[in-house]
Amino acid sequence: MGFAAYLYLLCTHPNEFRSLIQYKLWHEAKRDITAQREHETSGWDRESMRKCWEFLDMTSRSFSAVIKELEGDMARMVCMFYLVLRGLDTIEDDMTIPDEKKQVLLRSFHEKLSTPGWTFTESGPNEKDRLLLVEFDHVVTEMGLLKPEYREVITDICQKMQTGMADYAHRASLVGSYDPHSGLPKPSPYLENIAEYDLYCHYVAGLVGEGLSRLFAASGKEVAWLGEQLTLSNSMGLLLQKTNILRDLREDVDQGRYFWPREFWGIHQGGEKSRPPGKGRMVRLCYSRRPRSCSRPCWSCHPKRRQHTRRESHVCTFCHDP
Most buried by CB count within 10 Å: which residue of 9, 150, 189, 209? Predict the structure, then answer.
């Protein structure tokens, strides 16, 4: 991070800035992926993998450091998993891509992972991670160098996630034209209730937890049955995603994305629940209506509970530090 990035973080997220400075000053890294002795597992001696590590630093503040400290080839494996899903998420988030094109891109994204040289240059100019897609061929190259069992897990999770993202992206594209009284069988563009909210969070984050557990199990560093702990893995992802939704609520509303269930903000509409209120009021209503059933902490992913299923300390650190 450059000086401007630190200054921006200080102004917008002072608590995170304090934690980052503490981490930078007193945390002692357990490995250096650039060291000669680490090249065999980190891939630092390859230009394409160096570019992937650069993309990891560019796209993630909270996960980059802990990913790099995973032992052996687990760091490279998780780095690739993160970049694949970040690329997919960048397409889903881009409100400048027409729904027709976005549907095709999302539903076929897993195929791009084995398409040499594939890149995407049509992201909106303000998409912060657009460069990852512009140079996605580096990710494709490194995906081909992973062990087959790792590629299988990453591709499978990507395919599951892209399906859910595409479904919800299509619904979101209907916000401007939605009329519940038209009699047309259009799906609602909003998340209607807690069940839909949880399902969306499962697609975009719970599957990440599942993929990580399966990758850790496939590496042999963790017990094989860990990859089958779907409820535990899903809970970890849901907790992180719901935290992010609360943090980014105003930004999402300003851009026409509504992740908060309509059953909560709709009750303030005087009987008319078809459309959200004005942006500022929408945010205030969402923050004033945070029922325990919707933003509830996921008890099953509490660090102490997760540690009972982990036998590697660096995996425990990776799971609970971010």
Answer: 209
The per-residue pLDDT for range 295-309, each reduced to its tens digit, is: 554 545 554 444 445
Give the helix ranges, DSSP H, for 108-248.
109-112, 130-134, 137-143, 148-172, 194-201, 207-219, 230-247
Cβ(313)–Cβ(69) below 8 Å = no
Does residue 212 or residue 288 have the better pLDDT? 212
The HSE-up count of residue 226 (CA atoms within 13 Å, CB side) is 25
Query: What sign has the CA pseudo-torsion 311, 315, 321, 322?
Result: negative
Longest CA span, the chain: 66
Phi, psi of 304 (to 5 degrees): -65, -35
How confident is residue 84, by pLDDT bands cut at 50, 70 and 90?
A: very high
Alpha-carbon distance of 299 to 244, in angstroms, equals 18
| Mean pLDDT score of the chain | 80
User: Is residue 79 a contact partner of residue 53, using CB atoms and an 8 Å limit?
Assistant: yes
Give the position of tokens 């970040």: 86
Contacts of 125 (CB under 8 A, 6+ apart): none
Task: Of 115, 109, 111, give the one whose Cα is nearest residue 94.
Answer: 109
Parse the chain into domains and list their residue ranges: 31-147, 174-322
Do residues 48 and 190 lie in contact, with contact meaning Cβ atoms separated by under 8 Å? no
Contact 9, 16 (CB under 8 A): yes
CATH fold of the domain at 174-322 = Farnesyl Diphosphate Synthase (1.10.600)
pLDDT tens digits, 15-27:
666 666 766 665 5
Q: Cα torsion at 248, 254, 259, 265 (round to 10°)?
A: 110
Q: Which of 44-58, 139-153, 172-186, 271-285 has the lowest mean pLDDT?
A: 271-285
